[in-house]
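About this split. The held-out portion is used to measure sequence recovery: a designer receives only the structure tokens and must propose an amino acid at every position. Recovery is the fraction of positions where the proposal matches the reference. Here is one held-out target exactly as it appears in the evaluation file.
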């Protein structure tokens, strides 16, 4: 019996080693630039559309960067831990997962947290919420039926008996409007009229069951609030509903990127940039990565 168990364990070990070897063989090839144009940075392109993937790869390689490509999100974390790229360009919607989950995995793993993530295919505002790990994401003005239905679905999924909803927005009218939409449906509302007040009420008793937050707020933004929430064991699993302005202008995107810079994330809206803008952004990110490595030497690859 003991011999059988040992043989079984040995067989399992061999099987796991074979699987590991097989996984290792699936690592993407790294394409090097011309030697005279060569830079130190490696860029991992994650894009399921073959034409877009090839176009991005050619542009980035021609600019002097080494490039590796993936066409799905399944193995991004494993590949990133092995290749240790300096920058990852990430599609939000992938065939086997969404970019938000991939981003969360990368930022939660100490081996990949310092990698700069460049989110390119921002086709609408809801994709931003998904990328930030939101359960639901809406653009203003929010429709009552959509908001109520999403809250009811969350309530059923998490089995909240008397759900408490924290609404955080620096626009008082929006807070009151959202509150009036859901109070009549039996939800208890906690109101916060700034990011600072929202942060206080997030960690106060009674603690909210669900968070609705606007991203663009002065001083303490929605990004800061979400970051604090996800970093604390008491609040990291609270369902999140993100609200964004009805239209992301160039100025809004600039403000968003300023907010996201400290999280080593950058966003560009698909269809609004050309080769020059793409390369400029990658070079800015590469410089930011070098500065970050100098400040945090233990995060270097």
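Reference sequence for scoring:
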């Amino acid at each position: 019996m003991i011999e059988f168990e040992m043989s079984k364990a040995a067989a399992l070990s061999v099987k796991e080693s074979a699987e590991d070897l097989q996984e290792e063989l699936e690592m993407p090839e790294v394409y090097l630039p011309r030697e005279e144009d060569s830079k130190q940075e490696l860029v991992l392109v994650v894009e399921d559309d073959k034409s877009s993937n090839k176009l991005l790869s050619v542009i980035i390689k021609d600019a002097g960067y080494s490039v590796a490509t993936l066409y799905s999100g399944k193995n991004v974390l494993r590949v990133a831990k092995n290749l240790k790229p300096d920058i990852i360009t990430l599609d939000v919607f992938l065939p086997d997962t969404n970019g938000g989950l991939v981003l969360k995995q990368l930022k939660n793993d100490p081996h990949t947290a310092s990698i700069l993530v460049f989110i390119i295919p921002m086709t609408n505002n809801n994709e931003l919420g998904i990328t930030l790990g939101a359960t639901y994401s809406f653009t203003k003005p929010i429709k009552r039926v959509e908001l109520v239905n999403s809250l009811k679905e969350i309530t059923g999924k998490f089995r909240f008996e008397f759900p408490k909803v924290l609404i955080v927005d620096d626009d008082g009218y929006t807070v009151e409007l959202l509150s009036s939409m859901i109070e009549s449906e039996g939800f208890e509302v906690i109101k916060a009229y700034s990011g600072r007040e929202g942060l206080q009420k997030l960690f106060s008793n009674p603690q909210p069951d669900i968070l609705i937050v606007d991203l663009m707020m002065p001083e303490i933004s929605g990004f800061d609030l979400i970051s604090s929430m996800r970093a604390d064991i008491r609040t990291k699993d609270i369902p999140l509903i993100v609200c964004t302005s009805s239209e992301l202008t160039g100025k809004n995107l600039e403000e968003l990127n300023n907010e996201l810079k400290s999280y080593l994330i950058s966003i560009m809206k698909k269809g609004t940039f050309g080769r020059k803008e793409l390369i400029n952004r990658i070079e800015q990110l590469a410089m930011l990565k070098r500065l970050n490595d100098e400040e945090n030497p233990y995060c270097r690859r």
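Annotator remark: The chain has two domains: 17-122+251-299, 128-247.
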